[in-house]
Amino acid sequence: MLEHVVLLVSLLAMIYPVVRVILHLIRELRAKKLVVTDRDGNVLAELSTERVQQTDLKDLERLRERVGRDKGTELRAA
Amino acid sequence: MSASDETKEPNFEPRRLSSELPTVARRKGALSKISGAGVGSFTVWLVNQLHWTADWKLFAMAAAPWIAITISWLGPILTDVVYFIGGYIRAQFFLHELDKLADASPDDEVIKAKAREVRRTIAKLLADSAKRGWARAVPRSRR
Q: What chain A residue is nearest to B16 in terms of C-alpha separation?
């Protein structure tokens, strides 16, 4: 009985983080928009295919400059 | 300190408390420890099931905590690698959609130019995160 409890607890502890990673990946892959964040998680810019017409080329240039300067910028799904 | 040194940005990230980390990084650390504990107790369970001699059982059970901390050390690194690959695939989907949009209106030069610029920005972001990918494994002084 007790050994089954040990097995169950250890299996759950191994499987739960993997499930969370997979759920995060699914959410990431299904999202329609991408956001650029700095290393504190603040949103710098939004990129989406529906709004390509509205994007400003100067904004993109500034964003690229900032990506080259800052260390922890990330591309994430929104 | 000369003027050029002051304008130069430091080439390392300052050490931060775990409570200051963004949520994803904090969860990554916590869940890695949980999975490490799970692998450690699974090792003990497995060794208990096997018919090993008492010496080897003792050896394996003494090794279980070390296996646990190894897993919880590897966890965030592996998660970073997996998330990086996922983000790369996501960006490829995005670029594919962008290409379809640009192909749908072949005469519109503005959309083509904008799509090209967005593509350049994404390529730069991906290259930047690829460069930083293994920074965690490099000692702070040599980063």
A: A40
